[in-house]
Design a protein that fits this description.
single chain; 240 residues; alpha/beta; Nucleotidyltransferase, domain 5; six-stranded mixed β-sheet; five-stranded mixed β-sheet; 11 strands; globular
């Protein structure tokens, strides 16, 4: 059994895989020994991998190294199930590589566009030969809502929950429709461009994947656990 940990900017996911099958998943605000020890003691995983987009916590790494027979911290130097063609692989978000690996596992031999909508929105392209070519980054919904509130004098801080008409009828709906509707148009534009130029299959993942799934014009496949699945593939490659 594999222990997969995806440490994000706002939440952490802990998953257990049996082979390629996801059997349990937990979400937690904190990631420390007190959270991890009961999971390890109950399920007895034999290997684990940690992927983090935040500052590394050495105490967590030490604990996992001691508690698991095999432990890896996700980085670009690990043997990967896809090639990286990126000028600065050391600066590439490891969650982006993991999502690309998870997408390629499900759609091998296909040009892929992977869109992850979370704290940031990332767009990543993988060729049909399994080469990660790069991508783009833009602010996610919460960052856009916070920026409008913090860098203006009177605009309130709101979120995506609530009415979002095509034309806002008050300040709250004007902000919500502008932010969320703007992201829909941004995603649609990327998808249409890559479908035209590269005939891609598009994966949508991240915390907002299912919010946007039904709002996009193009056919996509939403998978909220794409990063976890990719990390499991990467871990399995280390164990071969």
């Amino acid at each position: 059994m594999n222990l997969i940990i995806d440490q994000g900017n706002t939440k952490n996911k802990i998953a257990l895989f049996d082979g390629g099958r996801l059997i349990r998943i937990f979400q937690t605000a904190d990631l420390n020994e007190a959270v991890l020890r009961p999971v390890i003691e109950k399920f007895r995983p034999q290997a684990g991998i940690l992927c983090t987009v935040t500052k590394e916590d050495s105490a967590v790494n030490v604990f996992l190294s001691d508690a698991l027979p095999a432990f890896y911290e996700m980085n670009h130097r690990l043997p990967l199930p896809l090639a990286i063609d990126y000028r600065t692989p050391q600066t590439l978000g490891m969650d982006r590589i993991a999502a690309a690996a998870g997408a390629r596992k499900q759609k091998p031999g296909t040009n892929l566009l992977i869109i992850d909508v979370g704290t940031a929105i990332t767009f990543d392209f993988v060729t049909s030969k399994g080469v990660y070519k790069g991508g783009n980054i833009s602010p996610g919904p919460n960052l856009r809502f916070k920026a409008l509130h913090q860098f203006t004098g009177k605009l309130p801080l709101i979120n995506e929950s609530g009415d979002a008409p095509a034309l806002g009828y008050d300040t709250e709906t004007a902000i919500r429709s502008g932010v969320m509707g703007g992201i829909v148009r941004e995603l649609d534009a990327y998808i249409m461009e890559y479908e035209k130029s590269h005939n891609v299959f598009t994966f949508l993942t991240g915390g907002y994947a299912f919010y946007f799934e039904s709002k996009l014009k193009s056919a996509i496949f939403a998978d909220g656990n794409l990063v976890l699945k990719g990390l499991n593939e990467i871990l399995n490659k280390q164990l071969k």
